Description:
This protein has about 200 residues and is mostly helical.
Amino acid sequence: MRNKKEKKKKFGFWQWIVFGGIFPIIIVLSVLLAIFSIRGVNIFEEVEKIPVIGSLFTDENSVGTTVEDLENTINDLQAELKNEEAKATQLQSELETKENEIAQLQAENERLEQSVNELQSSNTTTNTDWDSVVKTYETMKPKDAALILVEMDEATALNILAELTEDQLADILEKMSPEEAAQFTDQLADLADNR
């Protein structure tokens, strides 16, 4: 029997803490929570207002705790979304404008390339034709060439004479009258100075 009495009398350190400290605190907090709830006071909101203790119970990562805060956040996000949509629309229209400009420039570039190709082929044809004219005068008798050159346009005659070799030129000028030969020689000299 003595063992039973000794066991009853001996309370451990942890038993004193649990039965003497923790349980009474839990009972007091439960009673206070019930009283505040009956009065319509949300104790958790009230605790957040206390400077030091309130920071322990608030969640700093939360966006907003009230419906008003959430509505404000939603409105801000909707406004930001509208701004971004407007920017996207503007950028889309700028992109379409630039694409149209690029298409126009490409069409203009193709047209110019076609014109250049036509001019080059025309120039090649003109050069070929001109060379054949000069060859014709090279193969003519100097007397016949002189008679024709005197009668034609001076600029054309001068260009033909400028393309001939020195021997052919001398033979043709020899068959011209002295005045005509002097005139063509003078113009050939001016032409040579300008080149």
